## 1
Amino acid sequence: MFPKLDPLLHSELRLAVMSILAEVESAEFSYLKKQTDSTAGNLSVQIDKLSAAGYITVEKGFKGKMPCTTCKITPEGIEAFKNYVTALKEYIS
Amino acid sequence: MEKTNENKEMTAQESLSLINEVLNKSRKSILRNNGKHFILWGVLLTVLSLGIYELWHITGNPIWNLLWFAMPIIGIPLVKLISRKDDAIPQNVISKQISKVWLAYCVFVTSIFVISIFTGLIELSLVIVLLLGFAECISGIMLKNWPIIISGFILGVGGAFAAALMPTAAEQLLLFTIGGVILVVTGLIIKIQYR
């Protein structure tokens, strides 16, 4: 029997965000937007969902006078991402 | 990458491909950014070494070597300036480790430089060019790039050998000019590799 895929990660944009955050210590909203080629509104909604699940933390601050949102993956997020990739590999093999 | 769509149904293969694609794109962007720093420090090293060589050559006074301290004074604000324009590109494990290797290089060189000023016991150019080549070689290993590994080895070992053969310390400065040019070329290779 195949393991169940985490529905929170089985979404294109959320998966893209988690993939980026799994590789870096933290990333700013503008970087995530550019890398995922998404709209600010959509990205913001998906980030909130990941944050609500405890997969990422979101820190809002300022860079000079400009508002700056920084996202960071949590240990729970890393674990969920690993399990998701393991499950995907089982599906394929 | 195509416009990401939250509700798009993905197969397992598509999900893995997406992870791979996003990771590669992000990695390229981060490492390409590293290339800029190699170019900046390379240009600075080339200009300063040529300048100090000329001043030392004309005046015959080695005091001009104190101008080396201008390198961080000019370089660090320039790094901050170009980083501000980077659209907040984060660091990954590789870029962070490369930064640490070069930070260690700076600490070694500054310590050796200061010890040499007070004792005069160390063959300064030989040691610094060897360390420069070594740091370059380690960067190449991390980036899995053979031209950078080989150029680091040639710069380190060849440079140390050349330093031992060169008759005056002033002439040995030209090795750093070559080192600076190699750093610039390394930066360009990184930018092309991760285009």
## 2
Amino acid sequence: MVTLGDYLIVSGILFAIGFAGVMVRRNLIVILMSLELMLNAANLSLVAFSRFHVQPSGLPDYNAQVFVFFIITVAAAEVAVGLAILVALYRARQTTDVKDITSLKF
Amino acid sequence: MSPLLFWPFALLMLMFGVAVVINRNPVASALSLVVSFLGLAALFMSLDAYFIGIIQVLVYAGAVMVLFLFIIMLLDLRAEEGRQVNWLALIGGIAVALALLAQILYVIHNLKSAHQAFPPLARSTFDDVRNVGLLLFGSYNLPFQIIGVLVLVATIGVVLLSRREPR
């Protein structure tokens, strides 16, 4: 039997994978993809809790699913803006490697 | 909700999630991300959230991935070739991620309801588009409108950012 904990563990592992990607990778595009993985891990937790918290009417708690809808919308907007910044950066510096972007480094 | 469906899709999603991080070629990373998101959509559907699952496929596996692949094509990114690996940063990053994972697992282990199975639903959720929609346009009307403004601002921002500087 699959329990709530199984979904939460899978979600936690996915979040840790995304976090490791942000920490370890130096290509900005891959860092943005890892951010998407982390956002989706949070979505999986929300939907699992939504299904777990069954309302008296016998339906899952749809408030969490509305939150997931908002998160997906904001994530799509974030990706669009992030990639536009990436293109602007590439035009200015001809690189997508975070090691080469050190103007603010002390 | 059957374990026969849950574990294959969960493993598929996690394996391709790892592939996103360890692939050196950005195109391979982007395509792994598509498979990972499809596995996640299957997990959403196993939780009776059909609307969210379909939105996941449409928005992520469709729109967002096309955006990523388009940018990779536009910038003509190649696989990083044999740049010096910074072992200290690599091991440090993985250690921090593992510490975070250990904390998450500890919290889940101590959560009482995590060991319970999902309670059965009294009604089918095949019409959950209607239920989510009623909530979205009812209780969450104002946030919904604000999200609309946010998307408009993002659109204008993207156009402004990617425009060439006028001389």
## 3
Amino acid sequence: MILGSIQPAVLIAALMVAATPILLAAIGELVVEKAGVLNLGVEGMMILGAVAGFIVAVQTGNPTLGFIGAAVAGGVLALLFALLTQVLMANQVASGLALTLFGLGLSALLGQSYVGISPPRTPKLDLGPLSDIPFLGRAFFSHDALVYVAIAIVIGVLWFLKYSRAGLILRAVGENHDAAHGLGYHVKRVRALAIMFGGACAGLGGAYLSLIRVPQWTEGMTAGAGWIALALVVFASWRPFRALAGAYLFGGIVVLQLNLQAAGVKIPVEYLSMSPYLITIIVLVFISSGKARGSLNAPGSLNRPFHASG
Amino acid sequence: MSTTTPLLQISGLTKAYPGVVANDDVSFDIGAGQIHALLGENGAGKSTLVKMIYGLVKPDRGDMRLRGNAYAPVQPSDARKSGIAMVFQHFSLFDALDVAENVALGMENPPPLRDLATRIRDVSEAYGLPLDPSRLVGELSAGERQRVEIIRCLLQDPKLLIMDEPTSVLTPQEVDILFRTLRKLSEEGTAILYISHKLEEIRSLCSEATILRGGQKVATCDPREKSARALAELMVGQLLTPPERAARATGDVVLQVDGLSLKSNNPFGTSLKDINFALRAGEVLGIAGVAGNGQDELLLVLSGELASPSDRVRLLGQPVGHLGPNGRRGLGLVAAPEERLGHAAAPDMSLTENAYLSGAGRKELVKNGFIDWGKSRDFAESVIARFDVRTPGPHVVARALSGGNLQKFVIGREIEQAPAVIIVNQPTWGVDASAAATIRQALLDLAAQGAGVVVISQDLDELLEVADSFAALNEGRLSAPRPARGLTVDQIGLMMGGAHDLHAPEGADA
């Protein structure tokens, strides 16, 4: 039997690794959109994070510094977006698309002399006896730290949006920026901070690809992961745990179809390769449809420029 | 109540924007516990003045003293810390957040949400304004939304409460509740700065009034000692003539709606339920109701933006429910929606283009498949001339016009097309008194020429002024139209509140 060669524990472990880059990018973008900003530059910030993380890690020999560098690079590129859209009032959609193109080009330039090099290995997190539990240990407790950091960020974002005052202000700014301004909140400042958080998360996600998942630098290696992250935010109805579920679903199908390819299933490779995108979107469409739930959760001021008026 | 130092002294406040002086050397005092009216037309500078008091706008010149101490708020939180709270005209609420979260956002140091919910319940009961802290604001009625704003202010124990046109969205009964609350607050020593252009309200509620015109203070007086007419003339600076109504015979039914139900496609919208009415030629049907009871949906389904089964709406006897706006326009039904910018007019297009968009068919502005720009411009110019739209010319973009001028243009554009039926929603919302009079007169003139007119409005005075028959929308249901003559404000209030048995003949009191 073909499927006999696939081990569930290995599959789950691989799934978590495959899902982490998208999860990081999506949770960052979720916060940005909750603040009412649509940043289509996720792909660009991811790939810049990928190359920046790779360069720093290779130069210093320290993958941790690499990840920090990636987050900073993503944040700086996002700051450019914040400057364009919040200060210069440029159109968010156009600026985001430009950011993606710019990130792709800049990363190709920066990474020219790093093609074909192996980055320093990122160690697995030592969880002691947990990792030795049969099945569970192999599936859930033998990963690098970033997998858990990503989950921690999701929980943190959930707590922040739901229970903290700053999170309430952020949601208020995204829901109705005129009212938030009228109450004396700094719409642009809140949005700029959210945009930078989104950039840092996207950068981390990109570096996870180039330092752990692949691990290598190749031009255009994000291959649309940023776009999937964007779609994930919408179909997850701007809810952190749904974004987590969506990312793991996507990761799971990526890994499964790779295994199926390896096992020689008689389905053309093209269909298998497109299946993760297709299935993730179909499932999320079904989850978010019904009772106009998704649209209720959408930030009211999303993608509307804010002009402070006297 | 009188004290030696007034609560708030305002002296010489001046604020200029490019091209317009919004406030010119305005000075007055507000005593502790006083209900002080700020009266003026749209554009008289009321909003700018209160924004300066609330720290949203910085004055160019002049200063304020609070209890004798210098007071210069840089941002609203400074004002809130000093004990000044404000209820906004367009509510500063967040639809997708619940009541408690909305209240927390307007407070300086809110307690944890659970404690806050209990305090909201306590305060709302103490002031007779019942409110459930866990409900989503998007599901509340306009009156309930205002309660959220008021309670948000009261929880901070303000010394001065600013209310910007609070009654424009309320039913008469809700207005009574509000006034009771405000009087109670005043007795407890809270001063209230009450902004409005509704004179009767001010005369019944306020003990002092400051009147602004064109950014300048024209008078401070006791409104209880002046007639409404005297106040209006101070406010407008000229004599007002109410619209003339010629007695007119009504003709055949021009628009008939039977059993029309429609599900709203907006999650916060109101679905229409079994709407029935017949409009005769020469008749003005006034439809009252508090915002959010289906007015927008009714306009959309009558104008053709939303389709319905074809025989539910009949125009001149012909089923038109399935037709879109252009199809209905061709047959003689035109409409002017509430939202001027973005719905009635395309903000960044010129007046000529906007005139063309609506009048293309009826005014035959298309020649051999191409737009006849000359004719379109003439059409726009004729609207501008007839309705006294103040603008440099038809090449100006719609966005550049003031609200009142644009409203005159979009209504005039429809009237100029000589329709058989015209539907208007909030025709004078945010329009100054003289422009409002022009618009109402134009609608009456059109009816006198034999057209059927439907006026959807939240302004009862307006409806009583123009309407021959009167109906109210409540939660998507329309009461049966009754003759407007002889209706009292109390009866109307009950109709708006959903007492549908009222269409029994008068005298059969409930």
## 4
Amino acid sequence: MSFLGFGASQPQLTSEQKISAAETELDLVTDMFNRLVNNCHQKCIDRSNYSAGDLNKNESACLDRCVAKYFETNVKVGENMQKMGQNFSAGGRF
Amino acid sequence: MSTFFKSIGLSKVKLPSKKWLAFYTVSSFALSGVIYDKQQQKSIRQNYIDQVKDISNEKLEINQLPRKIKVFIAPPPSDYLETSLKFWSRYVKPILYYSGLDYEIIVENQQGVIRSYVANEMRNLRKSILDLPLKNLEEEQAQLKEGNEIIKKPEPVERLDMRKYMGIFYKMELPDEIKSEDCVKNEPELTGGVICLGRGAFKEYITGLHEGLLGPLDMPKEVIDKAREISKIENDKSKDTTLQTSTEMVKDITNEEKTNETMMDIPKEETFIETIQDSNTLVKNETTELPSGDASAGANEDASANEDASANEDASANEDARANDKEICLPSFLPEKSYNEISLPIELNNFQTTLKDRETGLPILIHQPIVMIPIPNLIGFLNIPKRIYRFYNKRYMCDSICGDVTHLVKQDTIRRFEKGDLQLGLEEELDWPSRWVQKGQDRNSEWVNELIGDKRVYEQLKVINEKRE
């Protein structure tokens, strides 16, 4: 986080570093996806209503909203973390 | 009283004094009136919900989107947006929720926001038919500022689409193009739906439709010049005197965006309701840089992909200053409203075919049925007896509102729009405070003007409300 403040552009990565960056990205995205599926399944799909295998409209809409809220929470928390991070680095220099 | 008790054998019982009895009687009347009314409202609401619940148990395919209803909410005059939102969340929203429909809310805090939105949609539709580049509201607003700042769209970065490999899609194919379930319906009036909460919202919706369909595609020069003039005057004046607001100078224009005073006449810090963003602005917010670098950029992509399928609901309520900035109110492209002189644009093809939105394939707003829900809201000290009467009789209003929304959900009372339907909800205007109306007439603001409709446009509309005589 902090070293990006110095360079004007992205730091030049070697191909190895690029591969490892892509790997970590994939890991993170997969992790987030799995969490998202678990979370929304828990919240939206009623345990007592397994009389049909298809999703009905209520559950569909609930899943849509769950995903939207999850991402919005993600974004908001990320923004706050970024602000905190800036405060930390500014405080560290003094 | 005490002799009565003696005669039935309860000689030891003593009633409280006459004054206490009077107090208990009055207070129990008041309380029981409220409790009865609230109980009745609950049962009425539950009744309508039960009528609608079965729709939510129907199956929805993986690659289908549910029917989407657009809700336009305007605050009552001289009052906060929250009053309207109470009507929305108590009477309209439960029925929409339990029916499993998707809804999108468009709110406004100043006059003209809804009109700008609707007119822009119509204009973009016409541009897409003519294969011209589309413009969103921010770009139109940028034109009004001095020295055309061109908003640079962030260039799309080539990224690996992770969605192809997530979860079961590692082995399975992604589903086909996600379409709304409304696309396969034959009659356009059975698709979607529009709810206008408030007479102001209804007026703005209708004028927005006319402006978008009959008006010019680009902002006419006179309008841009006028708007720039107004903002110049505003800037100069604000440098000279601090006390004089710009409202005294603003006369005889139709756009309210340049006035500091919102129609509620309250300082800006107090309008605390977040406006609803449609999917465009929500996606834009998510392209901000996050500290975790690449991983979150991947998340942004997923978010933008999922936004297409997600319901947009109003989330936080604490973004005061930002809320006012996000609302974009453009001046009317057709200030004179001379609909008779303008001929119907060729691209609309005289409405012979149902016009469909390019991206989603759904018939555009003009074909979707409208429900107009008046918001009776009396304010003022002298109106207190009337307000008490209305407070104790809210169940009738609940019944009518829930009934209208249920008709929209079940789609059973759709009829053509007639000239008399322009007066839908006129009874709400009787509640508007006269001083506010007077101010509005002096300023020539939109809501107090009579609603004019052009036959060629409004005969295409469909309504759900009952006929007005």
